[in-house]
Amino acid sequence: MKIIISGAYAIGTHLAKMLSRNHEDITLLDEAEDRLAQIGSDFDLLTMQASPSSIKALRAAGADHADLFISVTPDQSLNITSCVLAKALGAKKTVAMINNSEYTDPALQAFFADLGVSSLIYPEKLAAIDIINGLKMSWVRQRWDVHHGALVMLAIKLRETCEILNNPLKNLCGPDDPYHVVAIKRLNDTIIPGGNDELKLYDLAYFMTTPQYIPYIRKIVGKELYADVKNVMIMGGGSTAVRAVNTMPEYMDTKVLEISEERCEQLNNLMDNDKALIINGDGRDIQLLQEEGITNTQAFVALTDNAETNILACLTAKRLGVRKTVAMVENVDYVNMAESLDIGTIINKKAIAASHIYQIMLDDNVVNMRFLTTTNADVAEFVAKEKSRVTKKPVKDLGLPKGTTIGGLVRNDEGMLVSGHTQILAGDIVVVFCHNVNMKTIEKFFI
């Protein structure tokens, strides 16, 4: 697949590195030589110093025969313009990163498609969705809904109160049991478990279940005493914080700590209907946190531009008794460190945006996809097509690659778990977990 990426910034370089490992034909385009130089020589891709708004440069990069053109510079107008030009030159699909929430209105999708922009990516909105999903369940590190919640994936840190430790999964996750453990993060290792694997203390376990059994999962992992989130403190008043506050459930009371007095004044105009109390101060200031009621707060969310600051602030909040912490960590190198420090939910906009862009590369039978940063694994929803390989044999006989497991499926809008004897039917929405497996390899089973 021929892919051109415009913008050697955080998202562009992360995406280029990820796709180059899949042996795609990648050209990374940027006006600054120093940004291109930072990507190094260890990745199989072509770099090109040029403006993405130059028709001559786009032609030289191969836009006329590109399968996908992605523009992820910080300049929204440049992203849209370069996509329009690339599409006019012959690119099959184009993706533009934006920072204007107005453009995400579904009613405008056809308008942008007519212009030449196939898809729009708004990382702040995607990150806000992850944050809100994490806050709705204080005892869960990450929640992912399949087909409007017919199936649910829950990432849970296992503590001493967990009832199902040190027991082979074949004794816990049989065909008639209401959950499957589809992945385990143990220290620095990711495990796609088999029947003989066991859950251990401090594992981060990924459960697949149906909504009615969420209370049961909560009980067996020993999280019933975790208080539901009603009071939230957010440190940092950037665009992600604004988006999160404006989509916060009505029952949550929110305080935003912002160190810049000027930004505090702006936030008062950006927040919808006075949905948050804006406080001018440093979220790492213990005295300020205590004055603002940190002891009565169930969740602390650190969303500054500095990963170290966010990690430190979450550690401080935990020491002051907050159980649920969320940290935005944009530097991928810090993700494992944040996990090892037991920070809680990690938000990485690069990985979130890259997941959505990667899904666009795949065929229309991929409904949804996420890259799980903590486990370095992918999870995707595939629609099984008529006469596809996945419909011809029971799951146990499919010969799926090592590092792959099927977590469940949705049939006629009803979620169900999968055993080795399950027969997948055409039209089923199937949830697949992959670790160190190219998702396009899995896609061949469904088309």
TrEMBL record:
Task: Quote the gene name from the UniProt entry.
Answer: trkA
InterPro entries reported in the protein's UniProt record: K_uptake_TrkA (IPR006036), NAD(P)-bd_dom_sf (IPR036291), RCK_C (IPR006037), RCK_C_sf (IPR036721), RCK_N (IPR003148), Trk_Ktr_HKT_K-transport (IPR050721)
The question of whether Protease is a record keyword is answered with: no
What is a single cellular component term in the Gene Ontology annotation? plasma membrane
What is the protein name for this chain? Answer: Trk system potassium uptake protein TrkA
Q: RCK N-terminal domain: from which residue to which, for each copy?
A: 1-118, 229-352
Q: Which Pfam families match?
A: TrkA_C, TrkA_N
Q: Which domain of life is it from?
A: Bacteria
